[in-house]
């Protein structure tokens, strides 16, 4: 019985934190990010990455009045659903507040949706740099070295942006934020990960309020071709649908 009481107390405490998080985090975000109204490029590997992993970041940047562009390096054609998934991505981005004119989907053989294929770092970096320069980007957001799920395509994006950063090829004033990977336990305890996120976040933390969580779920629901039973569980349990902790390179 006492275990149930402790669990109920923890759940209630976590709920209160999340419920009030939006107002409490605004000033914290403002102090950590490089100013409001930046031009931000979200770099993802597949359609649904933007909702499955980065929804808190996209909606958090909207609070800061950032103009968000999205660059997706594949059409997600692993199961020959590329055309469907491109349409789903545009629908999801619309829910998240990213207009179609700000979405670029790369669909060619150089970047196949395949965890068994290693994308060429130099080629990815070249394409990425072109989009950064053309759109006047001053903040790039992508995966970290763990790729959140360990997918090789996610990790390839990190390797490319890391190379641009290390070699000094990014335009002056352009910063890079990477989404922190966490262990499996933390990944699937939903909002209960918030205390650990507050303790372990190095630079930027975005936490969604209840209204924004519903918005993130609507965005993920646009990816109807991907809503298998385990992804429905993911939507309910994953902390990435509610919390994003990020680090600057």
TrEMBL record:
Family stated for the protein in its record: Belongs to the PIGL family.
Reaction(s) the record says it catalyses: a 6-(N-acetyl-alpha-D-glucosaminyl)-1-(1,2-diacyl-sn-glycero-3-phospho)-1D-myo-inositol + H2O = a 6-(alpha-D-glucosaminyl)-1-(1,2-diacyl-sn-glycero-3-phospho)-1D-myo-inositol + acetate
Protein name as catalogued: N-acetylglucosaminyl-phosphatidylinositol de-N-acetylase
Compartments, as annotated in UniProt: Endoplasmic reticulum membrane
Topology class, membrane: Single-pass membrane protein
Keywords, in A-Z order: Endoplasmic reticulum, GPI-anchor biosynthesis, Hydrolase, Membrane, Transmembrane, Transmembrane helix
Taxonomic lineage: Eukaryota, Metazoa, Chordata, Craniata, Vertebrata
EC number per UniProt: 3.5.1.89
GO cellular component, one term: endoplasmic reticulum membrane
């Amino acid at each position: 019985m006492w275990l149930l009481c402790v669990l109920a107390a923890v759940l209630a405490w976590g709920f209160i934190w999340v419920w009030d998080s939006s107002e409490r985090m605004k000033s914290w975000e403002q102090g950590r990010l490089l100013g409001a109204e930046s031009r931000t490029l979200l770099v993802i590997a597949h359609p649904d990455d933007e909702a499955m992993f980065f929804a808190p970041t996209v909606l958090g940047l909207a609070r800061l009045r950032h103009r968000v562009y999205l660059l997706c390096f594949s059409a997600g054609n692993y199961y020959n659903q590329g055309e469907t998934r491109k349409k789903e991505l545009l629908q999801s981005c619309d829910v998240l507040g990213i207009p179609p004119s700000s979405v670029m989907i790369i669909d060619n053989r150089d970047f196949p949706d395949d965890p068994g294929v290693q994308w060429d770092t130099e080629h990815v970096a070249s394409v990425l740099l072109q989009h950064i320069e053309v759109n006047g980007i001053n903040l790039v957001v992508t995966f970290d070295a763990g790729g959140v799920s360990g997918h090789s395509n996610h990790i390839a994006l990190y390797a490319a942006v890391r190379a641009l950063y290390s070699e000094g090829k990014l335009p002056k004033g352009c910063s890079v934020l990477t989404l922190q990977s966490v262990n499996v336990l933390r990944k699937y305890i939903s909002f209960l990960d918030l205390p650990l996120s507050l303790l372990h976040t190095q630079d930027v933390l975005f936490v969604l309020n209840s209204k924004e969580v519903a918005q993130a779920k609507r965005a993920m629901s646009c990816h109807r071709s991907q809503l298998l039973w385990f992804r429905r569980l993911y939507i309910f349990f994953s902390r990435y649908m509610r919390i994003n902790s990020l680090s600057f390179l």
